[in-house]
Specification:
258 residues; alpha/beta
């Protein structure tokens, strides 16, 4: 492509179909709305019942949203999710593996009852969903997979070894799939959010000392807002990132440089 051919249309997702797991709560809602604002129709798959908020936001953009409540760790569910997208919207163009869980406990108390569910949701489910999506993407020589990693893909994970382990593994999985699928014009990347103002960080943010410790490590000097992830999401889902592959993109206000 000659540089004169590039245009902002490369960021458009018009006519694209996207699956967003966990896309009706937390950061997942921001991913869903970002894709809708760029023109994509959505299938949101989540273990959490939908209260209609995400649907209203998506439909306000003139886009369509289908919702499937499901347990992504159940055998056969990832194929069901991908097939549901194909049947209701059309072939999956974009997969955002956003659903995740994080249990916290001291190392001596962090047993298999915490470890196993986190591996199933945070790592095995994205693998199974990606494998099913690729069955649709390879024949069409087109597709975008965005895994939601974390700063803990780069760092330790005090209080949650399973979270750090799964997020490190998800970064490795992203690179492995890129290495194999780039030849089919499929881009596999990951977003690594930093410290964001969401429900799961309420306890830390409400503790002045704990919040201070976090913010002292963030050059931007503030907690991230879900909207801060939306531009990066559209970029990785669009033609504008067709030569970006196997990358783990931190969106962290500069946390990792300090």
């Amino acid at each position: 492509m000659d540089i004169s051919e590039f245009s902002t249309d490369f960021f458009s997702l018009a006519g694209r179909n996207a699956i967003v797991t966990g896309g009706n709560t937390g950061l997942g809602r921001a991913f869903s709305l970002a894709l809708a604002k760029a023109g994509a129709d959505l299938l949101v798959a989540s273990a959490v019942e939908d209260d209609g908020t995400t649907r209203r936001l998506v439909e306000a953009e003139g886009r369509r949203m289908e919702f499937l409540r499901c347990d992504l760790t159940e055998e056969g569910t990832p194929r069901q999710v991908v097939n549901a997208c194909a049947e209701s919207l059309g072939p999956v163009d974009i997969l955002v593996n956003s659903a995740g869980v994080c249990h916290i406990a001291p190392a001596e108390d962090f047993d298999r009852t915490r470890w196993d569910p986190m591996l199933e949701v945070n790592l095995t489910a994205p693998f199974e969903l990606s494998r099913e999506a690729v069955r649709h993407m390879v024949p069409r020589r087109s597709g975008k997979i965005i895994n939601v990693a974390s700063l803990f893909s780069f760092r330790g994970g005090q209080g949650s070894p399973a979270y750090a382990a799964t997020k490190h593994a998800l970064a490795g999985f992203t690179k492995a799939y890129c290495d194999e699928l780039a030849q089919h014009n499929i881009q596999v990347n990951a977003l690594a959010p930093g410290y964001f103002a969401t429900r799961i960080t309420e306890t830390t943010r409400s503790d002045p000392e704990a919040s201070r410790r976090v913010l002292e490590h963030v050059p931007a000097g503030r907690w991230g807002e879900p909207a801060d992830l939306m531009g990066a999401t559209v970029f990785l889902a669009s033609r504008a990132s067709d030569y970006v592959n196997g990358h783990v993109l931190p969106v962290d206000g500069g946390y990792l440089v300090r």
